[in-house]
From TrEMBL, chains A, B:
Classification via SUPFAM superfamilies: Homeodomain-like, Tetracyclin repressor-like, C-terminal domain
Domain HTH tetR-type: 14-74
InterPro entries per the UniProt record, alphabetical: Homeodomain-like_sf (IPR009057), HTH-type_TetR-like_transc_reg (IPR050109), HTH_TetR (IPR001647), Tet_transcr_reg_TetR-rel_C_sf (IPR036271)
Highest taxon of the lineage: Bacteria
Keywords: DNA-binding, Transcription, Transcription regulation
Native source organism of the sequence: Devosia insulae DS-56
Name of the protein this chain belongs to: HTH tetR-type domain-containing protein
DNA-binding region range list: 37-56
Pfam families named in the record: TetR_N (PF00440)
Molecular function in Gene Ontology: DNA-binding transcription factor activity; transcription cis-regulatory region binding
Amino acid sequence: MTLTSSAPKRENTDDRRRAIASAARQLIAEKGFEGLRTRDIAARVGINVATLHYHVPTKEALIGLVAGAMREDFRAQSLVRPRAHLSPSERLEHEFYDFQEMFYEQRDTLAVMSELMERARRDEVIHTAMRPILLKWHQMVAAIFVDGVADGSFRADLDPEAASSMFIGALVGFGRGPDTSPQYFERLCAELRRAVRVQTPTRN
Amino acid sequence: MTLTSSAPKRENTDDRRRAIASAARQLIAEKGFEGLRTRDIAARVGINVATLHYHVPTKEALIGLVAGAMREDFRAQSLVRPRAHLSPSERLEHEFYDFQEMFYEQRDTLAVMSELMERARRDEVIHTAMRPILLKWHQMVAAIFVDGVADGSFRADLDPEAASSMFIGALVGFGRGPDTSPQYFERLCAELRRAVRVQTPTRN
DNA sequence: TCGTCAATCAATCACTTGATTGATAGATCG
DNA sequence: CGATCTATCAATCAAGTGATTGATTGACGA
C-alpha cells in the first residue's frame, strides 16, 4: 500500500523556511505588509502557527527572511546574465526586456519589491537588505551609459549616474502610472532611447 | 477667575474632521499605514476615541478622509499657480522647483502620498481619490511638452505623454534613490533638461 | 427654566494577532 | 529496545484594536 498519500509530512528546517518565505511573499503581494498575518502564512504552508514560530521565531525575522530571499533571487538572476560582451545599446535593450518580463510575468515580485521599498523607510533591517539591490541596478545601468558615451552610442553630455536614476525612475514609475499597457511601455522605452541617444540634428 | 485656561473645548464637526485628518496625516507620515491607530489619532487631536468615532464613523472613512483632504490640497495648490503665460522651459523649471520644495520642505506630504499610492493598489476608495491627482500632474507636464515641441524649445520627436511619464517617474524615483542630496537633484534636473531639449548637434 | 441636541468621555465589548506552552509522533543512534 | 532530538499541533495567553454603550456637559431656542 502506498504510504504516500496524506501522510503527515515532516520537513527539515531549510525546506520549511523556504516554503514559509515563499508563502509570505505571495501573501505580501496579495494583501501588502499591512495584511500579512502569521496565521495566514502557516495556513498556506499547511502547518500550525506554532510550527511556523518554531522555524522562524518572530515576525521580524520572517520579514527579514523574505527580504533576504528577495535579495538572493536578484543576485542569482544577475549572475545568470553575462552581458559584458554586448554593445551598450544592446545591453540597454536587455534592461527594457528584463523589466517588461518582470512586470508582466512576475508581477508578484515587483509588488513585493514595492512594498519592501516602502517599508524600508522605517525598517532598518529591510533597508539594509534592499539597498544593495537598488544600488546594483543603478550601477549596472550607469555602466551601460558610461560605455555608451565612450563609444559614441549615447550623447556626449550624458551624465551616466543621473541618467541611470532617470531611467530606473521612469521604469518603476511606469508601474504606477495611468497606462500600464505593453503599447504604452513601448512608447516609454522609445522615449528613453531618444533621451539618451545621439540626436540626428534637426537639419532644416 | 479665568475660565479660559484648559476649558474643555467643544468644536463643530467640520473643524474636528479637519483636525482629525491632519493628525492622521502626520501619523501616517511617521509610522505608515501599518502603524496607524485610531487611539493615536484621537490622542494627538486631544479627544477621546469615542469622540473620534462620533465624527468619523469607521477607520475606512478616516482613510478616505485623509485621501480626500490630500486631493483637495493638491487641487487648491494647482489653482494658485497660473502659468499658462510662461514659456514651456520656464514652466518645466517650475515643475522642478515645486517638486524640490515639496521634497525638502513638505516631506510629510510626499511620504503620505507614497503610502497612499501604495495602498491604492488594493483599496478602491484610495485609488479613486489618488488617480485624479496623478492624472492631473501627467496632463500638466504633457501639456508643457506639447507646447515646447510646438514652439521648438524641445525635440521635435518628443512624445509628450511618454516624456511626461519619464519626467514624473524620474522625480518620484529620486526620492527612493540612493542619493537624495540637493546636489544630486540638480544633476537629475540637468539630465532631464538635456533629455528633452533640442540638441546642439555634436559638431566635430 | 426646561427640553433638545451636538459633542464629549470612561468603560467596555468582541475580536484579532503574535507568541508561548505542554504534549505527542517520528526519526536516529547506541 | 530505550534515550534523545526534531518537527509538529491543540490550546491558550497577553496585548492590543476598532468600535459601541450609556452617561455627562454645555449651548441654544421656546
